[in-house]
Amino acid sequence: MLECEEEMISSDYRIPMSIGETAHAEVDKKGSGCSVYDIAINPDYIKTLKTEPAFMNFFLQVVFEGLTAKFSVELEWEWIILKNRTHVGRIKPHVIRTYLKPVNTRTKRK
Questions:
Q1: Which residues touch 92 (CB under 8 Å, ≥6 apart)?
Q2: Could you tell me if residue 69 is left (phi over 0), alpha (psi between -120 and 50 degrees) or otherwise beta?
Q3: d(CA 43, CA 99)
Q4: Whole-number pLDDT of residue 24
Q5: Range list of H helices, the chain
Q6: How far apart are CA 42 and CA 95, in angstroms?
Q7: Do residues 94 and 20 touch, judged by C-beta distance below 8 A?
Q8: Residue 72 region, left (φ>0) first, then alpha (ψ -120 to 50), else beta?
Q9: Whole-prediction pTM value?
Q10: How does strand 17-27 pair with strand 33-41?
Q11: Confidence band (pLDDT; 50, 70, 90) for 1?
Q12: Which tens digit of pLDDT belongs to each residue from 74-109?
């Protein structure tokens, strides 16, 4: 069963997004300080996320896990999707690759 799960994890499915290099401080709606992590998402993929709730839930789980892994932070698994805003504060520049990186389909077996 573990091998089957590893094969599923190493599938060719890619999410067209970029997680920013650093967190930055912003002020939320209540005036409290908070850390903000920039995530750039392909506009076509955003359309899919808006029409398919299952994709949105999967995407948000990937984002939370990516932030946890990249920044070694513990996050609360609660989110609010802003309706009339695409961002909060200033967006930091992202380096976005325009070619596909090869997927390593080989998994180490013990």
A1: 20, 21, 22, 24, 38
A2: alpha
A3: 17
A4: 85
A5: 2-9, 43-51, 53-71
A6: 13
A7: yes
A8: left
A9: 0.66
A10: antiparallel
A11: very low
A12: 888 888 777 787 777 777 777 776 766 666 555 555
Q: Which two tokens stand for residue 53?
A: 């709730």
Q: Which residue has the tokens 């994709």?
A: 55
* Rounded CA separation 95/21 (Å): 9
Q: DSSP class of residue 10? A: T
Report pLDDT digits (tens) over 21-72: 888 888 888 899 988 888 888 888 888 888 988 888 899 999 999 999 999 9
Amino acid letter, 21: E
Helices 53-71, 43-51: axis angle to 10 degrees equals 120
d(CA 4, CA 110): 14
Q: What are 92's two structure tokens? A: 């930091």
